[in-house]
């Protein structure tokens, strides 16, 4: 049954207690400010070929023109007001005839005023249209420029055509710059043998240098960390009323919800960063602060996903069944349909994020993706890689026995080879792996001996497949200590086993602890429970009311009752 309980279920109350210990800072204002800065800065960054100054000058000129027009209108308006006043004064002195005359004049004047207003409206509309066109032009310019890069020589040097090789280098540099790695973008352009003769390369270097200069170092203790469990691909199966439905309703997130959250975070300027960028570790295990350099308005965050093992208990409940690498080298999921046929697609977080970053490279800081936390008892990534599937001890879990009975061709080496291949491909895509303990254990409740035995199982069964890890994401959202610094046997043991990065679950916006020997980070659960009971804790990321999946049974069950 312990397998059934995903993270944070049993610890919710404890976490709520802890939340009171950890001050939740009011940073909404800071976020609003940075949102505004993002909007202001956005235009400047989307185009990387036209120099920032040129566009700024064009914008200023447009503004000056509008200002001049407004001033001219004010002058015309002033003359009209004077005329109306003069006519008004005259009314008292003359008879009906004259009043009629004045009435006619006033009608004319009001018509004139109306037409002037109309004119003004037309002008405003025109200005809006012009502004829109200018915006479009900027986009078009970008498109044209990149199209130009593809097909035609730059206008100022028509002697020169971008060769296939040049285009390749230019594209690589552009991707580096989109992902905020301006140094690398500049380096590969400057180091190429084409740099001296290709004015497009030279121009790009200037632009990247300006962007680099605009970046600011983000305080690493103000980086938020969000996490998910396996995403629900088919809500009718997950919420079918069986004994697991309540758990899924609390701690899982649907694919629809996930996609909306991701889009919202992207729109707000969030950028995925690697936990290894926040803190560095030297060969002696000593930690020091890392550095995140982002343009104004961009906000770093860390992403993780727990239990990416596709446990037996989830079979038939509307979840993906494993991660695979497709023929193009992309990470995908397998999903088993009702009739037993297998679909390959993007049915969980890893491929969904990969696809999103393909579309929006600037959602990833220097190619970073998230942390994938693994247990070992059912294998990893949907592969049955644990030694117990081969040794079949007498006390083997019933669901493993059942699975083995229905898979007579099971071969441990094959499973491990497959898992290793997928893990390698994921690492190349920017994903990193963490231990979630081999047996999904609550570190605050188990003995040191149990922790030691469990860690060794992880090191034997999982580490060889993922190339080892020094990150541990505790199961059940548990932790070694409260907010006070780590100490004691369990920490000394884990540190000695090479773990440097530690994560718990915490609903604070930021919970970051950098000490000489470890880096600790709290993570926020973006799941049914949080969205239903604490939507106010999520407003910096997304609007829960717009995200919450109508397919969820409500009320989401309170913790501790199922
Ligand atoms: Zn877990």
TrEMBL record:
UniProt biased composition (Basic residues): 61-71
Cited InterPro entries: Glyco_hydro/deAcase_b/a-brl, NODB_dom
Keyword hit for Ion transport: no
Segments for region (Disordered): 1-71, 113-164
Compositional bias (Basic and acidic residues): 1-44, 116-151
NodB homology domain: residues covered: 411-470
Name of the protein in its database record: Polysaccharide deacetylase
Organism: Blautia wexlerae
């Amino acid at each position: 049954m312990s397998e059934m309980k995903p993270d944070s279920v049993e610890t919710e109350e404890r976490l709520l207690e802890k939340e009171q210990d950890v001050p939740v800072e009011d940073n909404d204002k800071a976020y609003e400010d940075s949102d505004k800065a993002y909007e202001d800065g956005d235009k400047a960054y989307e185009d990387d070929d036209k120099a920032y100054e040129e566009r700024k000058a064009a914008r200023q000129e447009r503004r000056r023109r509008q200002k001049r027009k407004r001033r001219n209108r004010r002058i015309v308006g002033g003359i009209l007001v004077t005329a109306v006043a003069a006519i008004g004064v005259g009314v008292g002195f003359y008879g009906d005839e004259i009043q009629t005359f004045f009435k006619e004049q006033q009608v004319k004047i009001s018509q004139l005023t109306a037409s002037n207003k109309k004119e003004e409206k037309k002008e405003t509309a025109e200005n809006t249209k012009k502004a829109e066109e200018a915006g479009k032009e900027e986009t078009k310019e970008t498109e044209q420029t990149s199209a130009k890069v593809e097909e035609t020589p730059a206008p100022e040097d028509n002697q020169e055509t971008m060769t296939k090789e040049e285009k390749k280098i230019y594209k690589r540099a552009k991707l580096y710059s989109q992902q905020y790695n301006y140094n690398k973008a500049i380096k590969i352009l400057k180091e190429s043998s084409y740099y001296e003769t290709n004015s497009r390369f030279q121009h790009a270097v200037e632009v990247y240098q300006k962007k680099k200069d605009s970046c600011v170092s983000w305080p690493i203790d103000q980086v938020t960390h969000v996490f998910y469990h396996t995403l629900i691909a088919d809500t009718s199966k997950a919420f079918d009323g069986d004994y697991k439905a309540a758990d899924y309703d609390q701690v899982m997130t649907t694919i629809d919800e996930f996609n909306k959250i991701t889009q919202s975070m992207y729109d707000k300027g969030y950028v995925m960063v690697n936990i290894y960028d926040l803190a560095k570790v030297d060969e002696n295990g000593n930690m020091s602060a890392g550095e995140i350099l982002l343009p104004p308005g961009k906000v770093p965050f860390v992403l993780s996903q727990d239990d990416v093992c596709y446990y037996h208990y989830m079979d038939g409940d509307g979840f993906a069944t494993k991660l695979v690498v497709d023929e193009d080298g992309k990470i995908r999921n397998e999903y088993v349909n009702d009739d037993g046929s297998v679909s390959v697609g993007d049915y969980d977080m890893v491929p969904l994020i990969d696809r999103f970053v393909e579309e929006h490279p600037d959602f990833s800081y220097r190619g970073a993706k998230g942390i994938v936390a693994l247990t070992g008892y059912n294998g990893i990534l949907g592969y049955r890689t644990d030694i117990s599937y081969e040794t079949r001890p007498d006390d083997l879990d019933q669901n493993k026995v059942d699975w083995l009975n229905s898979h007579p061709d099971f071969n441990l080496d094959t499973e491990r080879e497959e898992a290793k291949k997928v893990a390698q491909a994921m690492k190349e895509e920017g994903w990193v792996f963490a231990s979630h303990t081999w047996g999904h254990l609550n570190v605050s409740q188990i003995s040191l001996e149990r922790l030691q035995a469990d860690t060794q199982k992880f090191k034997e069964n999982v580490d060889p497949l993922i190339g080892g890890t020094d990150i541990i994401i505790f199961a059940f959202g548990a932790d070694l200590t409260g907010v006070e610094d780590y100490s004691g046997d369990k920490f000394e043991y884990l540190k000695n086993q090479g773990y440097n990065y530690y994560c718990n679950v915490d609903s604070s916006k930021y919970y970051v602890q950098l000490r000489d020997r470890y880096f600790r980070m709290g993570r926020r659960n973006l799941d049914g429970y949080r969205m239903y009971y604490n939507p106010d804790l999520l407003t910096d990321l997304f609007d829960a009311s717009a995200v919450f999946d109508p397919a969820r049974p409500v009320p989401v069950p309170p913790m501790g009752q199922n």
